[in-house]
Amino acid sequence: MIENTPIDLKEEDLEILNSPIGLKYLFADKRTDVGKALRMATYEIELRSLQANLVDLQNWVIQEKKKVVILFEGRDAAGKGGAIRRITAHINPRHFKIVALPKPDEEEVGQWYFQRYVNKLPKPGEMVLFDRSWYNRAVVEPVNGFCTQEEYDVFMGQVNDFERMILESGTYLIKFYFSITKEEQAKRFRDIKSSPLKKWKITPVDLRAQELWDQYTEYKLKMFDKTNTDMAPWVYIDADRKTEARIQALKHILSHIPYTIPEQTPEQTPEESE
User: Fold this and answer.
1) Domains recognised in the chain with CATH numbers
2) 0.85 cut: is pTM over it?
């Protein structure tokens, strides 16, 4: 059944809806929403194009032995993981890492705070994507009482110098902040809790996120004020609509890193060509 809501379709819209991708979304549900089908088909077509460009970018990173670090920060359920999955969906898994560090162990607690992140920085020809990063100490830790005021102050006094050293080592650094409203976060938490496949994602920290919303906001603003520098600015992404957030993140990566399309694909090892 097709909904009767009037929609002004242009010729290019009809071409999209009549494509294999468009038809997939038109007939995905018994009750067809033409507007939604057009929006999702347009998103998928653009996503695929950007992902293909990202393959070219990665080939350039490999061939030119460049180093790339991308941070994904934001409130719980902001869509960081979903964006990372779309960004890495088609690039060579041998030349990128996704880093999502657990709670520091006893040995790491006694180290310089940045040490365990230094150990995960990219080697030449590699991209590293941090699903949360050293900025845990700027927001999550102080809000939840996981660090002392002194530890927080030391971090805030060192983080800009740390990022300057990363940049001066010839590494590209991108810092994303995925922002959602309190209402959208509550809705996503409800969806996650009700899903037998996703409910494992909810943590004790997540369960307190709504209650501590204002405290998170306070520390987020302090983080922006101190660490939104000319050399390493934050890229603020409105993530209430996940599809738009993913497209925005991909576009920024492709525009921020001045890659060229290699004349030939980097040579593959026998294992990679299988």
Assistant:
1) 65-256 (3.40.50.300)
2) yes
Per-residue pLDDT of the chain (274 residues; tens, 9 = 90+): 444 455 788 888 888 888 888 778 777 876 778 888 888 899 999 999 999 999 999 999 999 999 999 999 999 999 999 999 999 999 999 999 999 999 999 999 999 999 999 999 999 999 999 999 999 999 999 999 999 999 999 999 999 999 999 999 999 999 999 999 999 999 999 999 999 999 998 988 998 999 999 999 999 999 999 999 999 999 999 999 999 999 999 999 999 999 998 776 665 554 555 5
**3-class SS letters over the chain:** CECCCCCCCCHHHHHHHCCHHHHHHHCCCCCECHHHHHHHHHHHHHHHHHHHHHHHHHHHHHHCCCEEEEEEEECCCCCHHHHHHHHHCCCCHHHEEEECCCCCCHHHHCCCCCHHHHCCCCCCCEEEEEECCHHHHCCHHHHHCCCCHHHHHHHHHHHHHHHHHHHHCCEEEEEEEEECCHHHHHHHHHHHHHCCCCHHHCCHHHHCCCCCHHHHHHHHHHHHHHHCCCCCCEEEEECCCHHHHHHHHHHHHHHHCCCCCCCCCCCCCCCCCC
